[in-house]
Please model this.
Amino acid sequence: MKGALTRFRVMAYVVGVFLLLLVVAMVLKYAADMGGMMKVVGPVHGFLYAIYLVISVDLALKLRWSMKGTALVLLAGTIPFLSFWAERKVVEKTAQGVPL
Model:
């Protein structure tokens, strides 16, 4: 259980950071006509988000999260800063022994 939670925590932060980089890359692409960063960060974030999904579902199954809680955690990797908040909530709820 602890390993699955640690993997989730790491991926939540990594996906959150790359999502912020993706936002910066999008701003540079559309505001400054500099699309080079987007060509790198976009696919990397997509790949990391796919890993985040697998790790999150694994944790959800192990901790018996509700469908709603699982869906919210999965969506957290698509909204800037939300994956950081979701990671904190998952750790808090897991420490309390309360499923999402």
